[in-house]
Amino acid sequence: MRTFSSEFIISRRVFIGSAMVLVAAPILAGTTNTEKELLVISNSGQFFSAEHMTMLADIAEIMIPLSDTAGATDAHVIPVLDAMMLTWAVAGTKKQFLQLLVKLNEIAKASFQTHYLNLGKDKRVALVSHLDKRAFANQTSELSKSYRKLKKIIFHIYYTSEPANPDFMLIPGTYRGCVTQAELDTFNARGRVS
Amino acid sequence: MAQEYDVIVVGSGITGGWAAKEFTEKGFKTLVIERGRNVEHRGSEYTDMQAPWQIENRNLVPEDFDEQGRYQLIKQKGYFKGATKQFFADDKEHPYSYPDARPFKWVRSYQLGGRSVTWGRQSLRWGPKDFVANKKDGNGVPWPIGYEDLAPWYDYVESFIGVSANRDGLEDLPDGVFQKPWEMSCAEKVIAKNLRKAYSDRRLIIGRAANITEPTAEQMKLGRGQCQARAYCKRGCTFGGYFSSLSATLPAANNTGNLTLITNAIVERVDYDEKLGRASGVSIIDTLSKEKRSYKARVVFLCASALGSVQILLNSKSATFPNGIANSSGVVGRYIMDHFSGVLADGIVPGLDDKFATGRRPIATYIPNYRHENKDGVEFVRGYGFQATAQHRTKTPTHANKAGIGVDVKEVANQPGPWKFRAIMYGEMLPYFDNVASLHPTKTDQWGIPQLHIDARVRDNERKMIRQAAKDIGEILDVGGCVDINVNTTPEDRHIAIGDRIHEMGGACMGNDPNTSVLNKWAQAHDVDNLFVTDGACMSSCATQNPSLTYMAITVRAADYAAKLMQKGSL
Prior knowledge:
The complex is a heterodimer of chains A (194) and B (571).
Chain A (H helix, E strand, L loop, with lengths): L11 H5 L13 E4 L4 E4 L8 H14 L13 H11 L3 H22 L8 H17 L4 H18 L16 E4 L1 H10 L4
Antiparallel strand pairs in A: 1-2
Helix pairs in contact in A: 2-3, 3-6, 4-6, 5-6
Chain B lengths: L2 E8 L3 H12 L4 E4 L30 H4 L60 H10 L9 H15 L24 H13 L6 E2 L10 H5 L23 H11 L3 E4 L2 E9 L4 E9 L5 E11 L3 H10 L27 E7 L6 E3 L6 E3 L16 E6 L3 E3 L11 H6 L3 E12 L8 E9 L5 E6 L4 H21 L2 E7 L41 E3 L14 H21 L3
Parallel strand pairs in B: 1-2, 1-7, 2-4, 7-17
Antiparallel strand pairs in B: 3-10, 5-6, 6-7, 8-13, 8-16, 10-11, 11-13, 12-13, 14-15
Helix pairs in contact in B: 1-7, 1-11, 4-11, 5-10
């Protein structure tokens, strides 16, 4: 039996190579596969296919999981990313992200002889974690560049989301430069500095 | 047949708005010509009521800007975001020229209101020493006015725009007509207190912001309300909390019934009547149709930004002025200046771990220039100040750009970190005759107007300042109580892009001698009585203070002078 914690087969070919996958269409709905702890998106997005949306939503949630605070899924990171693929991303970025998903499947198959989405939660977490370490350790490869770019935009979308900013005040009213935690909590609860 | 007005004001930015207000309120039929599009105050282009998650593309600019080579000049700037991009001109669409080895940054806003929509709002008076500096050390052209000439006009401008500031009692940064100041953070207070104890000449003060904290009846009548501490000023302000042409001067001018405003009209040239020896008006190109039209007026005020006005002057050629109108001296385009930096510093303010800040203050703190005198054996003239801030505690970074995912990294992200004080040098660049803007001999823009070619650089005096400023700020942070101090300086051999501070000035300097200056003490062209230039082009030196307040004061003073001459029939 193959161990997966640190022995993924991310060959040089897989790490550096590239492939193009064409996708289509909109709308989001999902069901949870309890056995795999996987949110399965049933409909395609505006840019990503349902399968891609499922993979991306899973990757985003692994990166930023639900805890005492909202996770990436709660923050609608992937639906926002899907929309931004049409309004923000250039063709090169679209290609990068799609190729990254292809590579992720190749890594999963090379390591576990199966598709990423067929893996259990622990293996998916371990795979993405390993990819994360590898991508920052070796930043010259195309896979690294694509992964880091995806991670950066996932984090950006998450940390600009409403769930990630529960104390955000659109109209603070004024500025106070020296308050206690208790005062800060009061202002936050009030949604206004006054 | 050309349409006729009493006054034509070219540009609707911070000085154009003021000229419009002053002339219309004095009863003159005034035409304001803006090269950019119309923007409605509180209109759809304002994005200040959008939360971060409501902004298109989460405040990122579309990636294809980069692919298409658009906005390359400002793409890395913190102020250029998805929510603000509409208020900045695309340098690809509006090209200009500079030597390859010396890039010049010309940040522009081509829409109604100009850069008054996005300005930094720091409203600092110049002091008496600033107006005598050229004469004292022999650089540039001596100013034909002093602080006392402008003081009442500073009062007038501050009363209208609303400046929130502390009365600091500093000789070199005179107090004015102020509304309630913004509060310093506890970290800033610690540093300010320590500096006051240690130095007789160095102060940390709260910035002086054109954000109103105590709206006057006049301001409220224009629909302006108290600043709500959102610091979204560069998106436009629905509350009218900060001063801009859109929120204040243009509405005031419009209320008179004497204002005519046209947009999408580039002034190609000031027309000159050879027989009368006067400016007869301006010729414009409609940016959409490319149709050319002319407008006539008794008086022309150029308020098109320093370099914009220089470009118009140089392009206004006639038999009398083959090198551009009002350019018998050959000085038009000369003495281009900007503030320069070259020193960035930061340090941790220890302690205060149980204290926080909340709300978003729309202004930083400020260490005014303390080097007017050539003391401590320094080998340069003029001086520098520092824009600085420790407005909020830092936040721990996310792992967006480093290894690490999962609950652990999420839980440690965006947590309150230490108070960090950051400072950036703002130095006074000397007025150099050879820092020059000229018309490119072959390159034109899409309307056929010759591109401006700008060749400007810092020199030995500025490099010496950077060296001393680096020493000073390290000491200031240490004395102020900071630890873990970092001081970064621009290497001596690296070009410092002029224009980067967006305080470009000069090009049509004021002076008493028509042979060495373009404008007299009223910002009136020596050569052409009914032509005035009151934007940054008129500046004879650049001091260290943010200049917009001084531009405004010069504009209203010049408008008052011109209006009196017009009323007497002598203009």
